[in-house]
């Protein structure tokens, strides 16, 4: 779905693989169903053939492969520490987002409703909430993660190229939910250092 | 009624195994067992693997037991063996993450 | 004309009085089953209208149709109504109507509970409807996540309506589940061993067991949240040691099994209809039974897949991801058993089959997207988006509504007694199928594009407009289809010609009777040697109507039916069922009084209905029983059996076992909550631990031992023909109650910390159960003195002993759970 980062990219390939598989299985079931009506049987079909073949062996194989694929990707998307990782804070509340960026001198640069990140580097978004549960979701960059009272969750995102991406709150959080959106501005190297030193914002 | 309970016991043991693994994982993370090492692996993971294999062994024994000792009707006996096999496979399958995924991350 | 004479005699015993008196006093399963189905269909239409309003709002961007407040009530009520007030009562009603007929018996094990269940459902559902009409309907989403649903963010009465109304309806679900389980296990036609039951009975057995284990966590969660809202006990408030994740665990611990609880009865209907449509027998009966049991148990290992984005470690997610993919296998077994059955038979495209085709197409797609969202990384994208909305509608509409529509056409003659006519159903089918797919197919895509759930507006120009407009048009086509279906069904009641007794040539017992069915179902009870007895004996219906089976002679005006051994189906004893009574409706009114007073925040006054319930329950039990032994009575075919009053395990004993199973799950969920908060919640350990009292603990242990011994001793003495021993049990339980009250006095104030609040609930739980056990011991003591017990009639004592053991056991566990951490520290 028009991914713009490695995380969304991996999930996107997963989606296309699953969609192809699901379509094939759906067509198979429909075909078997249609043929059952066309052939008009004589009551002598073996239960084992259908149930062991179709009900056990076939789905087990497919599901085992899919589970393994899913777990491998899942492990890859975890927020592991590394030298390149940039940590930003996302504090949600009804109905705004407050993003905290750390400057090289240790001071915090706070922006409302716009998150700034550098392109091509893994970002750990630290999610907290001041009231109810919210969820941080930038569909083109990565999956989503909830912000839960009393907990601190971390979501790994990454954008391949500079640009602006739309983000929303995915968890229903009251009457302002539909408008509880934000933007992610992705900078190139120069733009990023410029942002941190306060030259542009 | 006991024959019926016996027939479904394979899956009930799976439910116990599944809850035990999930509970031990949560407890292990809360107690910091992912940071302690036993030889090459984390203490928490070692405990989880031990628990997982113990259940796999118990359920393998259940299959053997149900297929060699009958109780009640033929139908319920066959059901007991089948459910024991399903429960055993389910424990193996749902327990695989103890060796393949990050424990507290 | 022996058949006609029997019909009149049985109708006089089993029928209900005419007019309003009959409406309030009937306990007949056919009447109540139809009432449940009609009520549920009414709620389905209301839920459908809400869906139309939602689609009207979303049809265009920046819609000004309704504001966010009203929209929040729409989607919350749409979900809540469809789940709690439509789907569950609909299949319960169907099972209540149909199961005794399929099993070859005359009514349910607990007819008064059946009636109580319907009244509770009606009153609880009406509370929610009233809230909607008054504009204060619940508005925090049908899964009521805290803290959004907690007092600070939902200060109005809206959430209270949900918590109290749904709990009221859940009471109905629990008692109905107990009713159904006991009926399936004990009240089949003689000879019907478990493997000769119609598959629908297996599906319902598994479903109702799942309800007994799956609903208690939700009831617990609702009680805890209501306690937090009403009294400030902070179970879910992170600042005071609570955790909103506890709500999510309790809710989904119920919520995921719930999906299968809804699907399985519908799948059971498919397994009954499909072989008949294919003019053959079902393929792989044993495989299907195994698959259904596997589905029932495995579905309890999926709940965290609704919580993949709450920040749980990957290994824990992987357990649930694995279980979620695994559960597709038993589903696959069923699908292929059904396709294999069609393959083996000579399928004909009658109206029920048409709807089954719709079921296959829609449900298989829902199953496939279900496997997709079971894969963790994909779910991180799809979660809480329109993709999930689409998926769940494919599963629930495909897996429940289509089979139930097929069932409506298949069993229609049972209700109307008429042949199906007109074929409007075909047009309805195409409208429903096309409308459904137009509504939901592209919703998958717009979800992946980023449309979240539960938004009431979206910007133009981001590519969502066309998808949403098509969805809305599709939704209205679907609504026309449902309307046409309703008209079609109503027309059948008036114009169609009389139907043959067994219009489809089916083989199961529900077709071996007059249609529309009579109040007593069958004039005599058959002996069954085959899964499809009507195939073996095509004239079975006539033979039963002529009284050639068991219990063919009406006796003493009793409502008699037969009980069998659970597994083998060997004939065991006679059950004499209670007749029409207004006790259920009054008990439901009193129960409703409790919930209404809670809503009005008149908390002290709720003690009145609670006291009223004790009185009602007392009468409920006191109305039954006899002061003399009746001994063995003839049931026909040269066989004589005793009545249930004179056996060790009458239905009441079995009912207690299953009710206690549900109660035990409730208790286990509470202990889970305690452990969960201790290990996961922020702000733990609590500032002050419980002030342990060794003397109380010792007194409670002594009381427990005395109670357990006393209850057993009373039973032993009764077998030897003497009364007594009950006083010991009463003394023991009283000591325990006092020890628990002492713990209440020392307990820290519940509003300070979640630990204190959990302690208070644990103690209250124990006090409640010890008090019930005590009341029951007093009851049996008085019954013994009044002559209701004898060495033969000892069941009441055995039931009281079950509850005494449970009260003592749970009391001890509670005392240990509150003392042990305090003693260690």
UniProtKB/TrEMBL annotation, chain B:
Membrane-spanning ranges: 43-64, 76-96
Domain of life, per lineage: Bacteria
UniProtKB keywords: Membrane, Transmembrane, Transmembrane helix
Protein name: Uncharacterized protein
Classification lineage: Bacteria, Pseudomonadati, Pseudomonadota, Alphaproteobacteria, Sphingomonadales
Automatic annotation (TrEMBL), chain C:
Major site of localization recorded for this protein: membrane
EC code(s) of this entry: 7.1.1.9
Known pathway: Energy metabolism; oxidative phosphorylation
Organism of this sequence: Novosphingobium kalidii
Family: Belongs to the heme-copper respiratory oxidase family.
InterPro entries recorded: Cyt_c_oxase-like_su1_dom, Cyt_c_oxase-like_su1_sf, Cyt_C_Oxase_1, Cyt_c_Oxase_su1_BS, Cyt_c_oxidase_su1_bac, Cyt_c_oxidase_su3-like_sf, Cyt_c_oxidase_su3_a-hlx
Protein name: cytochrome-c oxidase
Transmembrane intervals: 32-54, 74-97, 118-141, 161-187, 199-225, 259-278, 285-304, 316-341, 353-378, 390-412, 424-449, 469-491, 574-596, 602-621, 657-677, 697-715, 727-745, 757-782, 803-824
Source lineage: Bacteria, Pseudomonadati, Pseudomonadota, Alphaproteobacteria, Sphingomonadales
EC top class named in words: translocase
SUPFAM superfamilies according to UniProt: Cytochrome c oxidase subunit I-like (SSF81442), Cytochrome c oxidase subunit III-like (SSF81452)
Catalytic activity reported: 4 Fe(II)-[cytochrome c] + O2 + 8 H(+)(in) = 4 Fe(III)-[cytochrome c] + 2 H2O + 4 H(+)(out)
Membrane topology designation: Multi-pass membrane protein
Signal peptide: none
Superkingdom of this protein's organism: Bacteria
NCBIfam families the UniProt entry points to: CtaD_CoxA
Cytochrome oxidase subunit I profile domain span: 8-529
Location in the cell: Cell membrane
Keywords annotated in UniProt: Cell membrane, Copper, Electron transport, Heme, Iron, Membrane, Metal-binding, Respiratory chain, Translocase, Transmembrane, Transmembrane helix, Transport
């Amino acid at each position: 779905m028009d991914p713009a980062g490695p995380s969304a990219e991996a999930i996107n390939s997963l989606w296309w693989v699953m969609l192809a598989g699901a379509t094939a299985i759906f067509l198979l079931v429909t075909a078997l169903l249609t043929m059952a009506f066309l052939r008009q049987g004589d009551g002598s079909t073996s239960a084992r053939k259908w149930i062991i073949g179709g009900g056990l062996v076939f789905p087990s194989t497919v599901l085992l492969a899919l589970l393994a694929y899913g777990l491998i990707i899942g492990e890859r998307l975890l927020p592991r520490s590394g030298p390149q990782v940039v940590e930003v804070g996302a504090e949600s509340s009804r109905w705004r987002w407050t993003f905290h960026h750390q400057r090289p001198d240790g001071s915090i640069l706070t922006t409302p409703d716009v998150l700034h990140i550098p392109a091509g580097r893994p970002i750990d978004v630290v999610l907290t909430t001041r009231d109810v549960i919210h969820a941080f979701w930038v569909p083109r960059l990565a999956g989503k993660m909830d912000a839960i009272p009393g907990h601190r969750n971390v979501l790994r995102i990454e954008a391949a190229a500079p640009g602006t991406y739309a983000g929303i709150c995915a968890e229903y959080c009251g009457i302002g939910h539909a408008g509880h959106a934000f933007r992610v501005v992705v900078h190139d190297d120069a733009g990023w250092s410029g942002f941190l030193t306060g030259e542009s914002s | 009624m006991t024959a019926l309970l016996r027939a479904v016991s394979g899956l009930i043991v799976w439910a116990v195994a599944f809850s035990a693994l999930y509970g031990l994982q949560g407890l292990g993370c809360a107690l910091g067992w992912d940071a302690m090492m036993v030889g090459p692996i984390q203490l928490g993971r070692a405990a989880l693997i031990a628990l997982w294999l113990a259940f796999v062994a118990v359920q393998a024994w259940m299959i053997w037991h149900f297929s060699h000792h009958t109780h009640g009707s033929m139908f319920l006996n066959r059901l007991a063996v089948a459910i024991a096999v399903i429960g055993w496979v389910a424990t193996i399958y749902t327990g695989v993450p103890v060796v393949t995924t990050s424990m507290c991350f | 004309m022996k058949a006609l004479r029997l019909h009149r005699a049985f109708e006089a015993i089993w029928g209900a009085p005419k007019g309003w008196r009959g409406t309030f006093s009937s306990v007949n399963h056919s009447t109540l089953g139809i009432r449940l189905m009609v009520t549920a269909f009414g709620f389905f239409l209301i839920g459908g209208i809400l869906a139309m309003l939602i689609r009207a709002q979303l049809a265009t961007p920046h819609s000004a149709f309704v504001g966010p407040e009203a929209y929040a009530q729409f989607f919350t009520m749409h979900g809540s109504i469809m789940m709690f007030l439509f789907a569950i009562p609909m299949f319960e009603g169907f099972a209540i109507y149909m199961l005794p007929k399929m099993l070859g018996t005359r009514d349910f094990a607990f007819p008064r509970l059946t009636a109580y269940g319907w009244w509770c459902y009606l009153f609880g559902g009406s509370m929610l409807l009233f809230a909607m009409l008054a504009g204060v309907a619940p508005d925090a989403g049908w899964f009521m996540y805290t803290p959004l649903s907690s007092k600070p963010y939902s200060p109005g009465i809206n959430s209270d309506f949900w918590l109290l109304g749904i709990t009221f309806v859940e009471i109905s679900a629990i008692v109905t589940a107990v009713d159904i389980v006991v009926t399936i296990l004990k009240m089949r036609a003689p000879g019907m061993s478990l493997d000769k039951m119609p598959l629908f009975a297996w599906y319902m057995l598994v479903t109702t067991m799942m309800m007994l284990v799956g609903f208690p966590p939700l009831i617990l969660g609702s009680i805890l949240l209501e306690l937090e809202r009403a009294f400030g006990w902070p179970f879910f408030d992170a600042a005071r040691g609570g955790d909103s994740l506890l709500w999510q665990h309790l809710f989904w611990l119920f919520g995921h099994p719930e999906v299968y609880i809804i699907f399985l009865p519908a799948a059971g209907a498919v397994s009954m209809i499909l072989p008949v449509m294919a003019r053959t027998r079902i393929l792989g009966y044993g495989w299907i039974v195994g698959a259904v049991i596997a589905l029932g148990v495995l579905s309890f290992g999926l709940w965290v897949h609704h919580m993949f984005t709450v920040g749980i470690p990957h290994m824990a997610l992987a357990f649930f991801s694995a279980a979620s993919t695994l559960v597709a296998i038993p589903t696959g077994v069923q699908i292929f058993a059904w396709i294999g059955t069609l393959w083996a038979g000579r399928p004909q495209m009658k109206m029920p089959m048409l709807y089954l085709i719709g079921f296959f197409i829609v449900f298989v797609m829902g199953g496939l997207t279900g496997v997709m969202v079971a894969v963790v990384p994909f779910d991180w994208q799809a979660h809480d988006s329109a993709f999930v909305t689409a998926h769940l509608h494919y599963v629930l509409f495909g897996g429940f509504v289509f089979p139930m529509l097929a069932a409506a056409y298949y069993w229609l003659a049972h209700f109307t007694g008429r042949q199906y006519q007109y074929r409007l159903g075909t047009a309805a089918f195409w409208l429903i199928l096309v409308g459904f797919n137009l509504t939901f197919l592209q919703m998958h895509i717009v979800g992946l594009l980023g449309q979240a759930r539960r938004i009431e507006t979206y910007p133009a120009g981001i590519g969502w407009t066309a998808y949403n407009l098509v969805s809305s048009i599709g939704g209205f086509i679907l609504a026309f289809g449902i309307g046409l279906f309703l008209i079609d069904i109503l027309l059948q009641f008036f114009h169609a010609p009389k139907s043959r007794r067994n219009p489809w040539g089916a083989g199961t017992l529900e077709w071996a009777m007059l249609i529309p069915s009579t109040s007593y179902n069958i004039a005599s009870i058959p002996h069954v040697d085959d899964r499809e007895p009507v195939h073996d004996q095509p004239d079975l219906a006539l033979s039963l109507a002529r009284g050639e089976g068991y219990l063919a002679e009406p006796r003493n005006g009793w409502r008699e039916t037969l009980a069998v051994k659970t597994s083998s189906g060997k004939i065991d004893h006679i059950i004499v069922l209670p007749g029409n009574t207004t006790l259920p409706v009054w008990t439901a009114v009193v129960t409703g009084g409790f919930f209404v007073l809670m809503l009005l925040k008149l908390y002290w006054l709720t003690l009145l209905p609670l006291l009223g319930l004790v009185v009602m329950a007392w009468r409920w039990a006191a109305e039954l029983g006899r002061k003399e032994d009746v001994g063995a009575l003839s049931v026909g075919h040269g066989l004589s059996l005793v009545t249930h009053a004179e056996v060790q395990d009458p239905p009441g004993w079995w009912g207690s076992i299953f009710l206690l199973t549900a109660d035990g799950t409730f208790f286990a969920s509470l202990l889970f909550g305690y452990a969960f908060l201790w290990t996961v919640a922020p702000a733990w350990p609590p500032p002050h631990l419980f002030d342990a009292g060794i003397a109380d603990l010792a007194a409670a242990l002594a009381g427990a031992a005395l109670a357990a011994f006393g209850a057993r001793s009373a039973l032993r003495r009764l077998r030897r023909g003497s009364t007594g021993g009950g006083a010991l049990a009463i003394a023991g339980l009283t000591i325990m109650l006092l020890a628990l009250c002492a713990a209440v006095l020392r307990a820290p104030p519940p509003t300070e910390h979640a630990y204190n609040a959990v302690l208070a609930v644990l103690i209250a739980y124990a006090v409640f159960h010890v008090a019930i056990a005590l009341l029951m011991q007093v009851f049996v003591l008085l019954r013994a003195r009044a002559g209701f017990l004898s060495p033969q009639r000892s069941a009441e004592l055995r039931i009281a002993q079950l509850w005494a053991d449970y009260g003592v056991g749970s009391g001890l566990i509670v005392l240990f759970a509150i003392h042990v951490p305090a003693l260690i520290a």
